[in-house]
Amino acid sequence: MDMRTRLTNALKEAMRAKEAERLSTLRLINAAIKDREIAARGEGEDPGVSDDEVLAILSKMVKQRQESARAYEEGGRLELAEKELSEVKVIEEFLPRQLTEAETEAAIGAAIAEVGAASIRDMGRVMAALKARHAGQMDFGKVGPAVKARLG
User: What is the CA radius of gyration of the chain?
Assistant: First the structure.
């Protein structure tokens, strides 16, 4: 089942169960996907959004909400931080399982070996290999410095 179908089914279930917060988050996800479709149409591209693009959108949404929650916590607005974190939980239901630290290290090692990376100049190729194979499964903001440390 593709991502759009899963999201639509979850939206219908949330409506039936009258889960207002979950429904709100699912509508935000659908709106973000529609925005991407509209942008693609404007650029003359195929307006369909692939599962990989949906995963990228969801990952971005999670990251945005985590940053917002952190800012709210620092500002003493705990109720708003809780709302952001509850949205993160709903969004993460549609993302693949995140790799553990050990699995991430193993994936980095495998990608370095696969592309034959020898120096920091090869970092882009290593990151591209990781993104192709593990999209949505790791935080590339944290992976980048780890790759740099292994190559540098």
Answer: 18
Q: How far apart are CA 76 and CA 138, in angstroms?
A: 29
How many whole angstroms from its chain centre is CA 110? 22
pLDDT in tens, 108-118: 999 999 888 88
**Torsion angle of C-alpha atoms 136, 5, 49, 11, degrees rounded to 10:** -80
8 Å CB contact between 4 and 54: yes
The CATH number linked to 68 is 1.10.1510.10
- Is-contact 29 58, C-beta < 8 A? yes
Orientation of helix 101-115 relative to helix 140-151, angle to 10°: 50
User: Which residues constitute the domain of residue 26?
Assistant: 3-92
**Domain boundary, last residue among 42, 68, 92:** 92
Residue 134: count of CB within 10 angstroms of its CB: 19
pLDDT in tens, 39-89: 888 777 766 788 888 888 998 999 899 999 999 999 999 999 999 999 999
Would you state the pLDDT for residue 136?
Answer: 74
Structurally, how many domains does the chain consist of? 2
